[in-house]
Amino acid sequence: MKPAPTLSSAFLQPAGEALPQPLLALRKQRGTALVDMPLPTRKTENWKYSSKHLKLSDELASGLPAGGASTRIAEDGYRVVFRNGVVDSQASNLPQVDGLSVQRFADLSDDEATSLAERLDNTLDSNATQMARLNSARFEDGLLITLKPDTALREPLFIVHEVTATASGSAYPRIYVDAGRHSQIILVEEYLSSGDESVMVDAVTEFMVADGAQITSIRLNVEDQNVQHIGATGVRQQRDSRFESHCVGFGGPLRRHDLQLRLEGEGAECKLNGVVVTQGKQHYDNHTCIEHMVPNCNSEETYRNIAGDQSHAVFNGRIHIHKDAQKSNANMNNKNLLLSTGAEIDTKPELEIYADDVKCAHGATIGQLDETSLFYLVSRGIDRRDANVLLTMAFINELVSQIPVQQVRDSANERLNQFFDDSFKEA
């Protein structure tokens, strides 16, 4: 029997040492635990559709050097710029708000770093997010965002992740958000790239959401076709808190995002929206998991996938209602649109319920553009290409229009228009 592939030791050699000692110690500990880590295969349940797209050659093991031109979606707004996984302070524009602290990991004191090291990795299921463990062994910098109780940032904070692919390698950006009681923030993460060499981005963001806090997380992935992207977002919510997520992703050789939430305080609510489009031979895999741990919590999840040409989109959504989580209200909906006979979409909504007084529902559909609707539009003088665009945009516009930041909606619509131009070429 052929032995299972394991992570190359080349990936366990972090280059950057510009971190406080407690974080260096944590990174070393995590690296030691990854020696001989089995890589996902088609027999790994949560990677069965994506493992063949994961390419971890030794040339990707080297950390990418910081540098490259800056490209921002919010020239005048609050922003933090990561370049190849390292914070670029000169390109950043940090908010000066009482009660809000935005710090590089490299700038933390030993006491601050010790406290952070104790909290990292506490929001994600390590068995389900194998590649997030690699981030913990390799991050060279990161961002700690702390909101004291009752602190509100009224304008969005943009986190711009830039990868400059002038040589093969990998980047490991890391963010930790500690949102105090009744605090508020909108955090926008945009992933960009330039250059033509093969690179990998392994990104992790964690949120600790205290009582009554309101957090909006927006994630926009527009990296180029030479970038493998593997991301994980972990969230732990306390009493009466609200977490809202908007994820918009465009396909590549491998795009993967794990989104995991634990509703740990009564009255906690979450809302997850996601839009994915793929074309050519691109691949995009979304895995979500919502854990209802306690009574009287609400969750709402809506994801839309569009796949054209010979591309492949995957959605696996899981809602777990624990035994003590009575009066939970959970709803999951996944709709999928195939634009060609060669495209493929796999969807797997899951409900696991151990409480008996709950309201839960889930559903999934896969289909093509409706010919009757197309005929109706064409018969009214709209050419077939525009009719295709109208119907396809209508399929996802409900979610795009809910993104609460205009700059992100504009960026998403610009890329969607490019996708439509490529997908519907006929006059």
Automatic annotation (TrEMBL):
NCBIfam families, per database record: sufD
Species this chain originates from: Marinobacter lacisalsi
Name this protein carries in UniProt: Fe-S cluster assembly protein SufD
Start and end residues of each SUF system FeS cluster assembly SufBD core domain: 167-395
Lineage, opening ranks: Bacteria, Pseudomonadati, Pseudomonadota, Gammaproteobacteria, Pseudomonadales
InterPro entries membership: Fe-S_cluster_assembly_SufBD, SUF_FeS_clus_asmbl_SufBD_core, SUF_FeS_clus_asmbl_SufBD_sf, SUF_FeS_clus_asmbl_SufD
SUPFAM superfamilies in the cross-refs: Stabilizer of iron transporter SufD (SSF101960)
